[in-house]
Amino acid sequence: MILLIYTSKVSSRLYYILNLVFREMMEIEYEITNEVQTFQNYQGPKLNYSTKVFNDEPFISAHQILFESGIHQQRTDTTEYQGIPVLFASNQPASLPYDPLAAAFFMVSRYEEYLPFRGDSYGRFRGERSIAYKKSFHFIPVVNHYVEHIKQLLHHYYPSMRFGAKSYQFILTYDIDIAYSFLEKGAMRSQGALLKALITGDKDFIETRKKVLTGKMPDPYDTFDYQFYLNNKYQVYPIYFFHLGDYGTNDKSIPWTSERLQNLIRDINNRYLTGLHPSFASNSKFKLLGLEIDRLNAITGKPTIRSRQHYIMLKFPDTYNILTSIGINDDYSMGYHNILGFRAGICTPFHFYDINREEQTSLRIHPFCAMDSTLHHQLNLTSETALEEVKQYVDEVRKVNGTFTFIAHNNLIGAQSEFAGWSNQFEELIKYAKE
Are 261 and 244 a contacting pair, CB within 8 Å? Predict the structure, then answer.
């Protein structure tokens, strides 16, 4: 059963959002017409997406954003529909009190991040500056609800319509910034860290370092066997992102030439999906990105097609266009570094739309809404409070049968690490998200 959509205009933006909403999220086929007579004579399900009402078919009053080009300041007043905050309220009688297609495009395209903004010390867009945060709906995957509103509207008019049956999914991901706390650092870095500990009188550091280097205790960041245990116990298949950049101010990874690190990467690559965690330095020196991909390719023997930005360094559309140009098909950076929440208002993978070029790209974006370092460093939550916070996000994703993606780091569950005490809560999170 094909849905016929009437619109007086067509545009790249319209095609993009219709494909996302109807083909990918609802899993139904549609066709577009700008001929009134064709639309009125059609006997199947139809939707009027324009500014003119015809008969009694479902009508969504179209907002201009999908027919514009370039970036313009938009009115982003919000109202509520079925308890969900919505953008682009309709100024005329319509089947819905807002334009869900325009609202969805505004959110998933990250339209507001093309506009001028004051970034943090690294130039990143802070979550508090987003419309969603200011209007207090950053914790809701609103785009998924917008799609549900359209689905309910169509079902009301056409009870026999059938939609795809999406199911909730949980994806656990790991960023391996620093595989080991003491091992494989090299003589200069190890001696420098020891000298600093001696000067500051950090006896715990000195004692732990001695035990690790003499083999009397495991490295605090080497939690990989425990990760494998949890993966098997709860039947989760994580994605691991490895940092293979050179040492620098914001890049403290283990030297990529380390045989121990390379063996670890090969072992994990044989068990799970892997990807690159591009270095901080690669954001300003793009040639480094290709070099780091070559390193991972050489270690795994496979082409690298996944990535997640170190420090969640995202600049629209530059970052995604660069990733696409070097062969990355799937990116997992769509989220905030400093708050929890749905940066693109969605908990379903989607293709990136480049507003500057006005085209859908081949890059598939996998959004996340929570990260361990955000909980610990940015929000200063205890492990117990953090677990309860994250559970609420799991519940929100479950409501719309979306995908809950969590970012962890290997040092999260290390008994002697800065995250000490989080181990039990981390397992409880996996158990809750997997249920």
Answer: no
Q: What CA–CA distances, in Å, run from 172 to 1, 178, 240, 406?
A: 37, 18, 9, 5
Q: Which residue do the tokens 């507001």 mark?
A: 112
Tell me the pLDDT tens digit for each residue of 389-408.
Answer: 999 999 999 999 999 999 99
Q: How far apart are CA 310 and CA 308, in angstroms?
A: 7
Q: What is the pTM of this model?
A: 0.95
Same domain, 122 and 34: yes
Degrees, nearest 5: CA angle 319-320-326: 95
Other C-beta atoms within 10 Å of 103: how many? 25
Q: Are residues 280 and 422 in the same domain?
A: yes
Residues making up the chain, counted from first to last: 435
Q: Is 164 domain-assigned? A: no
Of residues 269, 237, 264, the one with CA closest to residue 253: 264
363 and 236, same structural domain? yes
Q: Is 219 exposed, middle or buried (0-12, 13-18, 19+ CB in 10 A)?
A: buried
Domain check: are 129 and 235 in the same one?
Answer: no
How many domains in the chain?
3
Do 289 and 148 fall within a single domain? no
The H or E element that residue 189 is part of is helix 187-200
Same domain, 193 and 304: no
